[in-house]
Design brief:
219 residues; TIM Barrel; 42% helix
Length: 219
């Protein structure tokens, strides 16, 4: 895999205002440093322990994004450095993020993960549940965390029309919330297999792993 060439090619396809999150889970630090040398600064991981180990060893100007399902008991490990948490799916989790952010005197930005896919395996909440979190007294009182947008994963399918329909649904929810919540500025949708459709549908952030680093190592 020519990591540098892959990053260059993808960045050329992205509009100026769309951020590239390089999904580096399971990849060794050397691969991340190759991407870093090619100008990449935002990396996404799905396991807090692995991300924390990498964060300790790699350059400090990297912005780390947590893109996987978050266990509440592990929030404390990433609170000192995390740049953005993509997959917040409960008020309980948001409370824990706020609590741990307060301890380290930081404000942590979060996205609510909306379930748009038809697959049962995908995490996420409904539009109504997202609204309940945003309008809750508990969230109104939080000083150390802010919801700045939404994240979603489309169904894993070759049917581009279905993927597009799901992304447009998420974009529509995002637009509605944006009218009521000025903090809303990020819409994280689109991965290696479907980011071009996500770009058509108005994403502000794509999460790309295998198209940069090659297939993941699960051994």
């Amino acid at each position: 895999m020519d990591i540098a060439a892959n990053i260059k090619k993808i960045k050329e396809e992205l509009p100026e205002d769309v951020k590239l999150v390089a999904i580096s889970k399971t990849k060794p630090n050397e691969d991340l440093m190759t991407a870093y040398s090619a100008g990449q600064r935002i990396f996404g991981e799905n396991k807090i322990q692995e991300m924390t180990d990498k964060q300790e060893e790699l350059p400090k100007d990297i912005e780390w994004h947590m893109v996987g399902h978050v266990q509440r008991n592990k929030v404390k490990y990433m609170a000192p450095y995390i740049g953005l948490i993509h997959a917040v799916d409960s008020l309980k989790l948001l409370k824990e993020i706020n609590k741990q952010a307060k301890k380290v005197d930081r404000k942590i930005n979060c996205l609510l993960q909306i379930k748009i896919a038809e697959e049962e395996s995908k995490f996420g909440i409904s539009r109504q549940e997202a609204e309940e979190i945003l309008t809750s007294d508990a969230y109104a009182k939080m000083k150390n965390t802010e919801i700045i947008g939404l994240m979603g994963m489309a169904t894993f399918t070759d049917d581009e029309n279905q993927v597009k329909k799901e992304f447009l649904k998420l974009k529509s929810i995002f637009n509605d919330f944006k009218e009521d919540y000025p903090s809303f500025k990020e819409l994280s949708m689109g991965m290696s297999g479907d980011y071009k459709i996500a770009l058509e549908c108005g994403t502000t952030m794509v999460r790309i792993g295998s198209s940069i680093f090659g297939e993941r190592n699960y051994n």
